Amino acid sequence: MTAMARRRIVLAAGGTGGHMFPARALARELLARGQSPILVTDKRGGGFGPDLADQVPTYHIPAAGYAGTDVLAKAGSLLKLGLGYLGARGILRRVDPEAVVGFGGYAALPTCFAAAHKGIRLVLHEQNAVLGRANRVLAPRAQAIATSFPEVRGLRERDRAKLHRTGNPVRTSFVAVGRKPYAVADATGPLRLLVTGGSQGARVFNELIPEAVSRLPESMRLRLAVSQQVRGTDFQRVRELYAHTGADVELRSFFDDLPERLQNVHLVIARAGASTVTELAAAGRPAILVPYPFAADDHQGANAAAVADAGAGWLLRQDDATPETLAARLESLFADPARLTAAADAARRFTEPKSAARLAELVLGETNGAGNDTGRAAAREVAA
């Protein structure tokens, strides 16, 4: 590809890893295709890290959410968004991109609005099974909406023809795990359980999981190997809860080696954020998903329900997650390796292994810009 063919593509993302991870994956894919990605983010978004710092120029603008009831806080947020919009207009004027890709969250709003007002092609990427509030506002102004799940709630009727299911790009290390066979538990070997609450942890797991483990039959507890992320300063208390279970337990505040840990795991207990769900699916690992009950528009509940409907895992609402109910679920699953294997296979089928490539093709106009039949059919089944 010649230098003249390089196209500038602005990626608008920030706030949390759930927005930044797919943006980073798209940046890598665009670089591999000889294109020129540019990141516009807020201070929380930072950048894509040192390995991409020299290849992806990064601009920072003010941004803030405006949810809540405090009038002064809302006024301050709107002021920041306004300043971010003016900053984004200046950036777009200087870099003159062919397209802007918004990854949701309030950090993307100023740049996406500026792109729409300047007549620049706008593509949105939605990571969850419910259209996020920022993307909901931007959807009428977008030319295409890339989705991660077969069905997406919260979309207006007139915007449904814009849907393209590209999947949610994930790190290649998770895809590599999914290419390997699922490690089926034998009749006497260890039963490996991984518990993670995502980047922020999940305090409810600190007591729930060890209490559930203590209720398992002794023969199962003695085979159990638990790796658990513990949020906060509860390490000693969690150790004490596990002390008399007989299980082999490892506690960490954060797993920076999650793909490696997933290699031989038989079952995962996790929240149901978009990144977590997509990574587990890419790795082909069955999971009990306990959605964060206060997530906006219950998008984690919708994510978990989609996984459960696909046969790739099990939804357990936090209100229903007692030590007794979780222990019963764990016992039934560990006693039935074939059921876990079937869920692992379903998880692999649920993911889109070439999601970064599919998203890049959509952004670069290499797919039909009028939308796709799969996206339209899925959207029609869900009320806006």
Name a few traits of the molecule.
Rossmann fold; 2 domains; disordered C terminus; six-stranded parallel sheet; alpha/beta; seven-stranded parallel sheet; 384 residues
Describe the overall structure.
With 384 residues, the chain is an alpha/beta fold. It has 2 domains: 196 residues, Rossmann fold (3-Layer(aba) Sandwich), CATH 3.40.50.2000; 177 residues, Glycogen Phosphorylase B (Rossmann fold), CATH 3.40.50.2000. It is 42% helix and 15% strand. It contains 16 helices and 13 strands. The strands form 2 sheets. A 7-stranded parallel beta sheet has the order 3-2-1-4-5-6-7, sandwiched between helices. α1 crosses α15, α6 packs across α11 and α7 runs parallel beside α9. It starts with 7 loop residues before the first strand and ends with a helix.
Q: Would you summarize the structure shown here?
A:
42% of the residues lie in helices and 15% in strands. It has 384 residues and is an alpha/beta fold.
Q: How many β strands by DSSP?
A: 13
Helical amount: 40-55%
For the report, how would you describe the main beta sheet? Answer: 7 strands, parallel
Oligomer: single chain
The succession of helices and strands, N to C, reads EHEHEHEHEHEEHEHHEHEHEHEHEHHHH
The CATH level-2 architecture of the largest domain is identified as 3-Layer(aba) Sandwich
Pick out the low-confidence regions. Answer: 373-384
CATH class of the largest domain: Alpha Beta
Q: Strand portion, in percent?
A: 15-25%
